[in-house]
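Researcher: I'd like a candidate sequence for this fold, 351 residues long. If you have to choose between options at a position, lean toward the conservative one.
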């Protein structure tokens, strides 16, 4: 618990909104962190104490065992050979903390690496190979355009079509995503950082990098999820499966760093880098346990993508400043609210 309290200390001290993002808009209906949080609430409703996005989740604990290979491109102490503790969070996209698990809902994995020198690295990854939007405005507009209608449970087709007509980059990204159907659960999902960052090594050489967490556990049958995966299964089946697996054994992902080259986009997360790019296997992320969200664990951590150790710096991707600012505002808002019990209950599953 002492380590957890240390991880959360940065959050308790408040946030500096990055890149002047807060000051770029003054219209209450435009892109401010408060406006973003309000739009999530407009789409998903208000749920005291929960994150405005990725509301449903489980806290996790584990370690990162660096093999030392990452030190060739990054001087951060996390990549020196050895192990550091981490806190994680598995989640589903969207602002409904009690939503039913579905195979096509975006899955998230947030991680906080705690280096021995006191520096932290935080990252929030998802199981999509590219992001759906290239700008904060695109994400903001798509959020409302894709709001399900009460009578059908699906978005208004005219509003969604109008949005897609204005955003060909989202159409292209959706084609890539469709070509990568979801796996059977959290344990066999690959999680991607999506945004580009810059890594600098001890010699001062700087390179653009994206990263992924690649699962080392493979299901018995490599099949895509069936059309009605929840038939005969519980509402929380994705989380329940994760809980049961971790009760038997740890789960491991390889942290794979992809090194960009000149001309690779660093400002647009909807565009993949060529598959031929050099990769570095930096070590093993091992999750040993999950916990129902309660005070003192990942519930109280903001996975701000701009909390970075020396050796990792932000790129010019406009989503990074926006994410940092909105995450901070959401954290502050929910920290002032009473929190209802989490939907997912580890003790219930293991009883």
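Model: Candidate sequence:
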């Amino acid at each position: 618990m002492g380590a957890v309290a240390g991880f959360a200390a940065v959050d308790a001290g408040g946030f500096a909104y990055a890149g002047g993002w807060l000051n770029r808009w003054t219209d209450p209906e435009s892109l401010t962190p408060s406006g973003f949080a309000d739009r999530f609430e407009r789409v998903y409703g208000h749920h005291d104490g929960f994150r405005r996005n990725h509301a449903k989740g489980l806290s996790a604990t584990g370690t990162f065992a660096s093999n030392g290979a990452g030190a060739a491109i990054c001087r951060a102490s996390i990549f020196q050979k050895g192990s550091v503790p981490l806190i994680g969070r598995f989640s589903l996209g969207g602002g409904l903390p009690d939503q039913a698990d579905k195979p096509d809902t975006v899955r998230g994995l947030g991680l906080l690496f705690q280096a021995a020198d006191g520096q932290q690295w935080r990252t929030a990854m998802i199981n999509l190979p590219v992001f759906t939007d290239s700008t904060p405005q695109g994400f903001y507009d798509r959020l409302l355009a894709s709001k399900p209608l009460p009578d059908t449970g699906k978005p208004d087709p005219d509003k969604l079509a109008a949005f897609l007509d204005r955003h060909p980059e989202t159409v292209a990204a959706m084609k890539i995503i469709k070509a990568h159907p979801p796996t059977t659960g959290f344990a066999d999902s690959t999680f991607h950082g999506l945004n580009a960052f810059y890594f600098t090594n001890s010699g001062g050489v700087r390179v653009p990098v994206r990263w992924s967490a690649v699962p080392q556990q493979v299901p018995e049958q490599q099949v895509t999820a069936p059309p009605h995966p929840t038939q005969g299964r519980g509402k929380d089946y994705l989380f329940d499966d994760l809980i049961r697996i971790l009760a038997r054994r740890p789960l491991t992902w390889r942290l794979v760093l992809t090194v960009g080259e000149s001309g690779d986009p660093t400002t647009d997360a909807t565009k993949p880098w060529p598959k031929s790019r050099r990769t570095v296997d930096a070590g093993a992320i091992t999750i040993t346990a999950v916990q129902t969200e309660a005070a003192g664990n990942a519930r109280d951590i903001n996975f701000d993508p701009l909390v970075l150790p020396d050796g990792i710096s932000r790129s010019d991707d406009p989503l990074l400043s926006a994410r940092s600012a909105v995450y901070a505002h959401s954290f502050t808002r929910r920290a002032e609210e009473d929190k209802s019990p989490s939907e997912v209950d580890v003790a219930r599953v293991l009883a």
